[in-house]
Amino acid sequence: MFGVTILGNNSALPAYDRHPTAQVVSIQDQSILIDCGEATQIQMSRYKVKRSKINHIFISHLHGDHYFGLIGLITSMGLLGRTSELSIFSPPGLKEIVDMQLAVAGSSIPYPLHFHTITGAGLLVETPKFKVSCFPTQHRIPCYGFTISENKAPRKINKEKVIAADVPFSFYDELKKGFDYETKTGEVIKNETVTDPASPNKKYVYTADTIFDINLVAHAMDANILYHEATYLQDQSQKAAERFHATTTQAATIAKEAGVKRLLIGHFSSKYESIETHVQEARTVFASTDLALEGVTFLVQ
Amino acid sequence: MFGVTILGNNSALPAYDRHPTAQVVSIQDQSILIDCGEATQIQMSRYKVKRSKINHIFISHLHGDHYFGLIGLITSMGLLGRTSELSIFSPPGLKEIVDMQLAVAGSSIPYPLHFHTITGAGLLVETPKFKVSCFPTQHRIPCYGFTISENKAPRKINKEKVIAADVPFSFYDELKKGFDYETKTGEVIKNETVTDPASPNKKYVYTADTIFDINLVAHAMDANILYHEATYLQDQSQKAAERFHATTTQAATIAKEAGVKRLLIGHFSSKYESIETHVQEARTVFASTDLALEGVTFLVQ
User: Fold this and answer.
1) Rounded distance, CA A231 to CA A233, Å?
2) Which of B17, B35, B65, B235 is catalytic?
3) Nearest-CA residue of chain B relative to A40?
4) Among residues B73, B103, B106, which one has the least CA distance to residue B88?
5) Apex A75 CA angle, B77 and A89, nearest 5
6) In a mutagenesis test of the A interface, which of B7, B13, B16, B96 is the best target, namely the one with the most A β-carbons within 10 Å?
7) Domain containing A166: what range?
8) Cα–Cα 20 to 30 A to A153, which of A49, B48, B51, B219?
9) Structure pTM?
10) Catalytic residue status for B166
């Protein structure tokens, strides 16, 4: 299972039962939280997202609609008895805010909490199951997008060829990892002669808040799902640019150029009560577009 | 109109669709916000509370369940075009947190925002319509309760007596304010001979988070409504004391001793899915008790 569940799809402030940005990426038995607007913990209860499975939180930037819910979530995790480690990645300044909030409350976080400051592009986390890396986006303050991918999938055993080469079943796991097999007589069976390449690692790309920026195409290239903000409809492209945000068709253009399988758009301006026109506009440029609707899980496939 | 609308009645963390503490007191055309837990602005939308009418916010103490929603609310007020002044009263430390959050966002509040630090008991605000004063409660960190009362109600014109004394109608407003009337011949008509005393000023007393403390009786005396926390049922009185909280029957005891007209209990522990037993227990001591249910407006009368 590799999927993303939308908890908040609105920009700036809550409106029309849309909430500030938050998404949970589930990858095998792990959950990753991306951004954490106000009331994210309430949205987690509403949509049955298990807080205990979250071990990594990534905050794209320190505008309030992307992190005001963090302090409530991490203190609640403590009250709920969490003992396992939690790592939080963000641009500079978040730890100082949390520390000050804990200090005035005379309290502390009762589980190991690690803050990691993002200062540039690169790999943030690598586990046996997934990798998370980041890249800068062009916004009013330091802001980063995230790429979450499965870690290297195993090579596939070619049944006919392994049987023909007489490689024992007990060595199959080693073959999947890419090792060659040496027979009792010293002959080397090269891995690629008995296995097929693994499927490409699936990836989810989250471009956070950003102005229309063609440089994002490289980061989004071949993503199974690209999330791109579409704060405004296309007729507001000038306002979007002034505020370092993007429009529906701009998001769709990035998706099209990057050849992604599917585009999700979100971060809708509170000025729009209905967001149906957003998806209609985006689909004129990139047909495989959907609204990042709250409570919906999109499979990364 | 003098009433209190409950926006959040839970303690510590959101649970069972109960939210952290927040209440709006409406007094004539003004609204006063008391405490501002996470998602208060969302609760305001849900229950049609107009943010624009709020000019005063009182934060009892800096545990997160009483103020984590403040930064979202005050930044949203700016985004919604607010230009009028807002005053926030709290124990020390809140301004520093808000300032740090604004700094990392590279933003500012676009309307006049005044922080006032509470350091002891006393009068906080007096307007022609209402007065707000505070008193310390016994909690783990500095914490204050609030008394909100109508400002001095006008004296009542006694129609028969003013007519008999031949006081002109144009002087009635002065009579209501307590002034004597001097006739053209120099005779003084004493105010109290032609008016009746005003009704007592109605008052709402909010005792915030507190251990069971008999000293609160003096502050709650003769309140039209007393809000007292009842985090736990009575069988948890030891735990309540350890955590500087109160139980159902303790809240009711304060209400009874203070001779209040009505008691509201709230700040329920998240361990309780149902809070029906809370009100049943409290009523065994003080019959005129109700649950501070979210979305309900209780008239202060």
Assistant:
1) 7
2) B65
3) B39
4) B73
5) 80
6) B13
7) 156-196
8) A49
9) 0.90
10) no
